[in-house]
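Need tokens for this chain, all 281 residues.
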Amino acid sequence: MPLVTLRELVQKAYKSNYAIPAFNIHTYEDAVAIVKGAEEMKSPVILMASPSAIKHLGIKIAACIMNDLAENATVPVVSHLDHATDLDIIFKAMKAGFTSVMYDGSSLSFEENVHNTKLVVKVARAFGVSVEAEIGRVGKSEEGEELQQILTEPESAKAFFEQTQVDALAVAVGTAHAMQKQEAQINFERVEQIQEVVDVPLVLHGSSGVPDEDLTKISKMRFGKINIGTVLKTVYVKKIREILQNKPDLKDQIILLKDASCAVTEMVKHKIKLLNSNQRI
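Here are the structure tokens for all 281 residues:
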């Protein structure tokens, strides 16, 4: 199945009672495991390369992995650049074949964020690439570095979208990146206030920390895209430890990673079911 853009998927999802799952990849094996889970559930899926993945794989290799998997998948797949703050990296990702990018100007002033996002959108339109941006700031960085959370103000979200016309808008409503436990407290009142003034698919970051019941609830509240990353890293590494404990003489890393990736596939299927995106193709 050919690659698709973020806009194609989230426009349909946010008007219905489901959200598109977006999973961070870090290796070829976990990327394969994510697509396998999506195929088994017949769910569209977004593969995301975070800054740490780009640092590890490089832009071209990350794009090749995701795009090759997409072209051979039986479900729609988006190749997405996640949390990019460097405009040069964003433009290189577009050239490399990413179908979606996120410009993260959440640490900048409102005016700077708008200015840079508008530039990204302008270039992306020429490439046929979708753009996600963030207003407000989700707590902690992708790697767990402490950052002050700034809840998204409805009027700021409205002004930001009107000026940038992004395809998806990430908002801060109570989650944090790199959470190891499902203890996030979603501010549903703030979600509703934002949705009253902005007609665009919203994006929830830091969703590994969201309790299952809240994840299902928010997926039915016009959130077109739900980001999930930390929990996949956790189950992947945990499974590797279990395999090595049970097979101390194992010396083949290909077997190790292939067997461990089964845990990633099962978690992907679990999250897809919660987001109600299964059986959507």
